[in-house]
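ARCHIVE CARD
CATEGORY: sequence design from structure
SOURCE FIELD: tokenized fold
FIELD CONTENT:
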């Protein structure tokens, strides 16, 4: 006795495989071809402009973040202040005078449009 598979089942099975293969391909491409090159943390430390507050940025901001985030973010002094306050609300331990120094350094070194 020969078991015959209905044509609708064959069609469904083929499209299901193609659908999954498509999404698997996209996933693998996303793993293999990163959208953005991420430099090692050491390179960003050396690229930070000199100034009062640089070492604090490296020590305090660099504890949780790759410093690339700073290079990508161009903000006003008020926006940097809000970012630092947000980090404090998330648990960053910092003295108020250090926070002010970091905000001034970031606002001077990484303003909008530069």
């Amino acid at each position: 006795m020969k078991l015959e598979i209905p044509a609708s089942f064959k069609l469904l099975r083929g499209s299901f495989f193609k659908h999954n293969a498509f999404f698997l391909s996209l996933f693998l491409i996303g793993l293999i071809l990163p959208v953005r090159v991420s430099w090692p943390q050491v390179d960003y430390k050396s690229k930070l402009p000199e100034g009062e507050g640089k070492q604090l940025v490296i020590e305090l901001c660099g504890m949780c973040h790759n410093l690339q985030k700073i290079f990508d973010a161009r903000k006003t002094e008020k926006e940097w202040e809000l970012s630092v306050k947000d980090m404090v609300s998330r648990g960053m331990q910092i003295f108020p005078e250090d926070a002010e120094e970091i905000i001034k350094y970031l606002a001077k070194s990484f303003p909008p449009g530069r």
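CARD ANNOTATION: The mean pLDDT is 81. The radius of gyration is 25 Å.
SHELF: design records, drawer C
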